[in-house]
Amino acid sequence: MQERIVLLGGFGQLGSLIQETVPAKVKLFTFNSKDFDICNLAQHQSVYKDLAPTTIINAAAYTQVDNAESEQERAFKVNAQGPAMLAEACPKDCRIIHFSTDFVFGGLQQTAYKPEDVTAPASIYGASKLAGEETLMVLRPESTIIRTAWLYSAEGHNFVNTMLKLMAERDELSIVNDQFGTPTSARTLAEVVWRFVANRELKGIYHWTDQGEASWYDFAVEIQRQALELGLLSKKISLRAISTQEYPTPAQRPEFSVLDKTATYEAINFEGQKWQDELKKVLMLKL
Ligand SMILES: NC(=O)c1ccc[n+]([C@@H]2O[C@H](COP(=O)([O-])OP(=O)(O)OC[C@H]3O[C@@H](n4cnc5c(N)ncnc54)[C@H](OP(=O)(O)O)[C@@H]3O)[C@@H](O)[C@H]2O)c1
């Protein structure tokens, strides 16, 4: 079967890399937020009628974690009502692949979260993404949802690029050292998405991040170390480890949100690499 794929949110961080890594045999139809608003049911219906997709990949989302605290309605509209409309309009035999977040978890567990572990989002963003998951699982239980975390890529607005910019401009930076998760290359996730596309039997919720765990401070230290080694930065600056209390943000984030990928490794026969190795691959794209 030739896959005909509609990609929503195709110009965001993950969407761009899904586009870049598309296998030759796949016919991909990519939409940005201006051509296709995922909160417009009529648009879903007419696009799917015209294009007859075999799979719809939804990389569109409201992802501004702190702004969501004051834009609750918008966050829920894009992250929950959007997926509901997608599920309603999706043709009968068409598959949905959707993304969610480690922020659906409360963060008080001591061991990596399994897909079936109890959710308890601490933020509006996390709650809106959880509502999107639940809606999809009720309306289209055969959908595939990939929860991921701490995404970054060579381009665009993300922690790696923010750190590189600030490290070049400042003499000292203070970074939170009591929130733990896993930095994850959006490029590798995009490759993982294509493995999921290749197996239509994979339904339900899966977890994907690169391997290992880190605090934001650990991540910043490694970014600086590798960037100096590669010549992307010319001077070493002082990095100060601080607590979440010392860096208050509108949204509460989980203290610990490492995801257990055991089921995914078995499902797609791929385990990825340590986050430090993935970071190196991304930084090398900047040379
Ligand atoms: N980034 C992370 O660290 C992270 C962590 C865990 C999970 N995730 C999940 O991974 C997925 C991809 O995230 P990402 O980092 O690629 O996010 P992103 O860069 O913010 O991309 C999201 C895309 O969605 C589009 N969008 C927003 N509202 C829309 C609407 N109403 N209709 C159509 N498109 C709309 C945005 O377009 P405009 O820019 O034009 O608004 C943007 O291109 C999301 O489901 C996210 O929740 C991300």
TrEMBL record:
Keywords, in A-Z order: NADP, Oxidoreductase
UniProt entry tagged with the keyword NADP: yes
PANTHER family in the record: DTDP-4-DEHYDRORHAMNOSE REDUCTASE (PTHR10491), METHIONINE ADENOSYLTRANSFERASE 2 SUBUNIT BETA (PTHR10491:SF4)
Function: Catalyzes the reduction of dTDP-6-deoxy-L-lyxo-4-hexulose to yield dTDP-L-rhamnose.
EC number in record: 1.1.1.133
GO (cellular component) term, any one: cytosol
Cofactors that this protein relies on: Mg(2+)
One example GO MF annotation: dTDP-4-dehydrorhamnose reductase activity
GO BP, one annotated term: dTDP-rhamnose biosynthetic process
Cofactor binding summary note: Binds 1 Mg(2+) ion per monomer.
Pathway listed: Carbohydrate biosynthesis; dTDP-L-rhamnose biosynthesis
UniProt similarity note: Belongs to the dTDP-4-dehydrorhamnose reductase family.
Pfam families: RmlD_sub_bind
Catalysis: reaction(s): dTDP-beta-L-rhamnose + NADP(+) = dTDP-4-dehydro-beta-L-rhamnose + NADPH + H(+)
Domain RmlD-like substrate binding stretches: 4-283
Keyword NADP annotated: yes
InterPro entries: dTDP_dehydrorham_reduct, NAD(P)-bd_dom_sf, RmlD-like-bd
Listed name of the protein: dTDP-4-dehydrorhamnose reductase
NCBIfam families recorded: rmlD (TIGR01214)
Provenance organism: SAR86 cluster bacterium
